[in-house]
Write a structure and sequence with these properties.
The protein has about 60 residues and is mainly alpha-helical. The protein is about 65% helix and about 0% strand. InterPro entries: Ribosomal_eS17_sf.
Length: about 60
C-alpha cells in the first residue's frame, strides 16, 4: 500500500483534530497511538503518519484550531 504525501497530511490532521490531547512530542508514544487508532497494516505508512504528527506537536502546530 502506498500513500501520497497529501494523504498522510490529511490523515494526520484528522487524527490531531479528533484526539489533540492524546498525542505528545514523543515519537514512541505516538507510534503506539497511531497503531491503535488507525487500521493500517503498512509499517511505512504508520511511520510516515507518526512522524508527521510528532513534527506537528513539536513545532506547536498540532493544537486545536
Amino acid at each position: 500500500m502506498d500513500a501520497d504525501p497529501q494523504e498522510i497530511i490529511d490523515a494526520g490532521d484528522r487524527l490531531l483534530a479528533e484526539y489533540p490531547e492524546l498525542f505528545t512530542e514523543q515519537y514512541e508514544t505516538n507510534t503506539r497511538l497511531v497503531q491503535r487508532l488507525v487500521g493500517v497494516d503498512s509499517f511505512r505508512i504508520r511511520t510516515r503518519l507518526t512522524g508527521y504528527i510528532t513534527r506537528k506537536k513539536r513545532t506547536g502546530n498540532g493544537t486545536q484550531r
